[in-house]
């Protein structure tokens, strides 16, 4: 590829009208959640900002995030890939493979040193010197550190890259960690989710492409415009929660009526994502809308918070399946019985002691 | 009639006593509403249309409001506690593990409670009680921190969320924060059972006026308590 060019250059080269270009800019402004007054900023950025070279690495993961990414509809993933960024390396979508592709990676890293955006998908296994995930004959942790050195910013795509994901769930045999656990001194954007919402992945990439800077992040590094609110606080079933109308079982009348899934384990109240407002597949639906409680897939360590269809996790008690409330009631009951017995024994002791002291007092007289 | 000569010690100021009873009420409300929030059930007030059900007296929304209001009352009542703490030495009977008296007192009470010693030395507040109250303050603060960490996130840009929000990341994730909040609530209830029992037991067997002290502020002793240094210099 020649030197990187702007989106407007690309439109001109393909003989697409200025009108279409402006329409595209308006759409992008909307997707990024920006105010309409910023359209002119987006237009000028799209005219001048050179397309960002992107390197997309795959680590310890399932490529489910890619499956989500290629289903992005506004903007289309194909538009992002072909028109808006210059995707230089991505093992699963590249036409080339093997030695030539790895060779290309080295060239790109040299050519755009300090300028490219690095998207990482997948956790980083550290056990046994990282041999549990090998790419091109080298360990993933080695590749990651090498590519991260020259990156302008790093996007952790998906829960594996952001938190460690299912590999890092107990007992974590490969000692998998998140990207930010092994890479330091770089701006890191967390885009968690299993997978993340397609438009959220493309939205974050587009934000960086257009503005040349990362979106506003929260204290953990997640873009605020997508991970600022709990699913619970944006959920269309929230009125049922506030009214105390809950699904008790998956086949009851409440479930058919679409009441709140809180009692069947919905993790919406603890999970930060855009499912409630952006939804999936171009706003078609999202898990809660389909009647399935949220499992909190964008939350740290969510795999260990099982069972997913219970509000509370079970407490390990031998030969029983119990939660905190049941343990609490039994403990409080046992303790009450205990203090009653202790009280009775105390009374006996007190009386005896009283008698003794009384007798000694009498003797002294 | 047996005449008992006692000295009267003014131990608790009115501020600590007000705090104590506000706390009792607030914790009772917090625990009951908290259990409902953790495991809501149909209590007859809900309709079939959320538009109308939400304004009913016992909707989830109302019960959560009561929970949050009680939490704010509990937090505000600490003003009384702090005021008393500053004002009066008797309100400052902290656990003092750096003193010898704390540990001899602990042993003394341990032996007494396990029926190996029929009588214990007189204390304004014994070492076990001191440790227990220290523990329950710790639990209440843990509840407050985890509670505000969850509550503040309703508006992630609020100052409340800026202060307490990072706790959600510190403790792995918000789900864990929910669990800690729930488990510690039960531990506070276990404390309450022991506390009420111990106070009643002391009141009945030792006649120092253990329970009435939380209303009147005074305790009665035949002998000078060992930890009198905490009240007088």
UniProtKB/TrEMBL annotation, chain A:
Q: Which domain of life is it from?
A: Bacteria
Which Pfam family, any one, appears in the UniProt record? NiFe_hyd_SSU_C
| InterPro entries in UniProt | Cytochrome-c3_hydrogenase_C, NADH_UbQ_OxRdtase-like_20kDa, NiFe-Hase_small_C_sf, NiFe_Hase_small_N_sf, NiFe_hydrogenase_ssu, TAT_signal
Cellular component (GO) terms are: [Ni-Fe] hydrogenase complex; ferredoxin hydrogenase complex; plasma membrane
Offer one example of a GO biological process linked to this entry: anaerobic respiration
Q: Which co-factors does it depend on? A: [4Fe-4S] cluster
Please tell me where [4Fe-4S] cluster 2 binds in this chain: 232, 235, 260, 266
Asked whether the keyword Oxidoreductase is assigned, the reply is: yes
The record's note on quaternary structure and interaction partners says: Heterodimer of a large and a small subunit.
**Which protein are we looking at?**
Hydrogenase (NiFe) small subunit HydA
Q: Could you tell me which species this protein originates from? A: Pelosinus fermentans JBW45
- The organism's lineage? Bacteria, Bacillati, Bacillota, Negativicutes, Selenomonadales
TrEMBL record, chain B:
Query: Where, by residue number, does the polypeptide cross the bilayer?
Result: 18-37, 65-86, 136-154, 180-198
- Which keywords appear in this protein's UniProt record, sorted alphabetically? Cell membrane, Electron transport, Heme, Iron, Membrane, Metal-binding, Transmembrane, Transmembrane helix, Transport
Per the record, the coiled-coil ranges are none
Please give the superkingdom of this protein's source.
Bacteria
Please report a single Pfam family linked to this protein: Ni_hydr_CYTB
Question: Family per UniProt?
Answer: Belongs to the HupC/HyaC/HydC family.
Q: Provide the protein name.
A: Ni/Fe-hydrogenase, b-type cytochrome subunit
């Amino acid at each position: 590829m020649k030197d990187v060019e702007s989106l407007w250059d690309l439109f001109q080269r393909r003989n697409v009208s200025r009108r279409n270009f402006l329409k595209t800019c308006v759409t992008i402004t909307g997707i990024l959640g920006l105010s309409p007054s910023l359209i002119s900023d987006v237009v000028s950025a799209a005219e001048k900002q050179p397309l960002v070279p992107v390197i997309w690495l795959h680590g310890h993961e399932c490529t489910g995030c890619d499956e989500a990414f290629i289903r992005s509809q506004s903007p289309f993933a194909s538009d992002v890939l072909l028109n808006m960024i210059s995707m230089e390396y991505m093992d699963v979508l590249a036409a080339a493979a093997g030695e030539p592709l790895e060779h290309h990676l080295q060239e790109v890293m040299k050519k755009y040193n300090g300028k490219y955006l690095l998207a990482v998908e997948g956790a980083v296994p550290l056990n046994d010197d990282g041999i549990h995930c090998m790419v091109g004959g080298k360990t993933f942790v080695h590749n990651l550190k090498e590519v991260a050195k020259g990156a302008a910013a790093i996007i952790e795509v998906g829960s594996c890259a952001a938190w460690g994901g299912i590999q890092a769930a107990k007992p974590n045999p490969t000692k998998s960690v998140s990207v930010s656990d092994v890479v330091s001194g770089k701006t890191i954007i967390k885009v968690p989710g299993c997978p993340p919402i397609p438009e959220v992945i493309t939205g974050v990439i587009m934000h960086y492409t257009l503005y040349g800077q990362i979106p506003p992040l929260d204290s953990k590094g997640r873009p605020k415009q997508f991970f600022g609110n709990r699913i619970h606080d944006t959920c269309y079933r929230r009125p049922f929660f506030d009214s105390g109308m809950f699904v008790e079982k998956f086949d009851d009348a409440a479930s058919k009526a679409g009441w709140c899934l809180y009692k069947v384990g919905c993790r919406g109240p603890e999970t930060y994502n855009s499912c409630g407002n952006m939804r999936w597949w171009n706003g078609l639906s999202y898990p809660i809308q389909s009647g399935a409680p949220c499992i909190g897939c964008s939350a740290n360590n969510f795999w260990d918070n099982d069972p997913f269809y219970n509000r509370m996790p079970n407490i390990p008690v031998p030969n029983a399946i119990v939660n905190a409330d049941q343990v609490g009631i039994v403990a409080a009951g046992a303790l009450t019985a205990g203090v009653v017995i202790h009280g009775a024994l105390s009374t006996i002791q007190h009386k005896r002691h009283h008698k003794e002291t009384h007798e000694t007092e009498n003797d002294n007289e | 009639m047996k005449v008992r000569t006692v000295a009267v010690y003014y131990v608790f100021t009115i501020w600590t006593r007000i705090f104590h009873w506000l706390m009792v009420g607030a914790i009772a409300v917090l625990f009951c509403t908290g259990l409902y929030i953790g495991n809501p059930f149909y209590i007859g007030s809900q309709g079939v249309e959320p538009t109308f059900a939400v304004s009913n007296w016992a909707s989830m929304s109302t019960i959560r409001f009561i929970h949050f209001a009680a939490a704010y009352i509990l937090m505000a009542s600490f003003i009384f506690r702090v005021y008393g703490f500053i004002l009066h030495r008797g309100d400052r009977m902290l656990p003092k593990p750096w003193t010898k008296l704390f540990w001899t007192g602990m042993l003394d009470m341990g032996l007494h409670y396990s029926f190996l010693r029929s009588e214990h030395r007189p204390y304004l507040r014994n070492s076990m009680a001191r440790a227990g109250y220290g523990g329950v303050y710790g639990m209440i603060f843990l509840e407050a921190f985890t509670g505000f960490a969850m509550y503040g996130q309703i508006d992630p840009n609020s100052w409340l969320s800026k202060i307490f929000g990072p706790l959600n990341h510190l403790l792995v994730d918000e789900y864990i924060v929910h669990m800690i909040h729930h488990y510690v609530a039960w531990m506070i209830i276990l404390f309450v059972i022991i506390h009420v029992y111990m106070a009643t037991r002391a009141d009945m067997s030792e006649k120092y006026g253990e329970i009435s002290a939380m209303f009147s502020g005074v305790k009665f002793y035949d002998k000078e308590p060992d930890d009198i240094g905490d009240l007088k210099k």
